[in-house]
Amino acid sequence: MSTTTSPSKHLLELQGVHTHIGAYHILHGVDLVVPRGELTLLLGRNGAGKTTTLRTIMGLWQASQGSLRFDGRDISRLHTPQIAGLNIAYVPENMGIFADLTVKENMLLAARQARTVAQIDEARLQWIFGLFPAVQKFWNHPAGKLSGGQKQMLAVSRAIVEPRQLLIIDEPSKGLAPVMINNMIDAFAQLKASGVTILLVEQNIHFAKRLGDSVAVMDNGRVVHAGRMAELAADEALQRSLLGLAL
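The structure corresponding to this sequence follows.
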């Protein structure tokens, strides 16, 4: 009798992850799951360890203990280029765009399968232009001349210029005007609907409540709460105990 193994419902799983940066012990046994096809939010006060968790997932900092599994594969000891090669895209808080290059050149650099703009999937590019019209509008402009919101849209566009299984983004709404935040929410809703699994660090509560399926709350380098975003959004007492404020 033959048996087949079905993929785990969790695309990404962290178990007991510790991270040291120099003499500092930042993560103290992080347990985190990111369900397939959902948008998972990582919330917490400043300094809770959220960004360190993302950087550890991407191999920018090596976990000193614990396991990280992506799509069933142990990635704990892989280097960042190998992790990115597994169809994981990461948008850091500083956005990681090249200010001296044009928007077009930034996009081409991110499209690993293309040597010229003509080789970028045209249908995908038009889809991105629909999500973020500013990317098309400023196609030939230096990226450094864009506004903060436009740079954030370019950073996300670079991350999705090729199909990705997992999109990891650190505070996409930081510093954005409310109208830009609503545009970003709409774009992420479309991304999620297309089947992309998303892990977001986010401080904007409106953003979190509108988009989140599941949520993990961090404090002092640990996940102290995990569950459905709708349940956290409905429980003000829990919000106050975890985050020090009501959503």
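Residues 86 and 165 are 8 Å apart (CA to CA).
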